[in-house]
Amino acid sequence: MRGELARLAREGQRPSQLFLTCADSRLVTSMITSSGPGDLFVVRNVGNLVPPPGHESGDDSVAAAIEYAVDVLGVRSVTVCGHSGCGAMQALLNSEPTGARTPLQRWLRHGLPSLERMADGGRRWARLAGRAPADAVEQLCLTNVVQQLEHLRAHPSVARAVREGELELHGMYFHVGEAQAYLLAETGEEHVFDHVGVTDLSA
After folding, report:
1. Is residue 200 part of a domain?
2. Model confidence over 140-163: pLDDT tens digits?
3. How many domains does the chain have?
């Protein structure tokens, strides 16, 4: 590993993918994606949220990472990875519309569109292939990946790169208890997460 890190120090980083996932300590990105040093440009935050561009409040960290990964590093793909048992999604389900706003509560407002999407009776729910979601938290975890991909597509650097065929976007759901990864397949209004096991997304 020292030799590989020495090479990366000399040559600089050239990751092929931006991997945006939750800060949950049970998510080990290298294990989920079979990746090593230099493969992934990783952004982690509570709830794997992507604030829409131009959103007030100065949440620029995620937007800056997206811009840098796409425009400077030239990544070829971006993955938004949610997971089972997400505490951020549980907090969203239990959130009160009034009361004092802590930093966590202010951050989680970027997940409110996911709640609204799940409550919209005119939309088909995101689902796992082969089984129904275990509970409302799992349903929101799946829905949140789909919604955050929409936010991602709205970022100018991403929209341009996708339009020019230089960038692919992926959704992923990692079930912690099963140690299984599911990749999102989008067909029209259908959003189905299909089991792929531990996968190499860095190739």
Report:
1. no
2. 999 999 999 999 999 999 999 999
3. 1
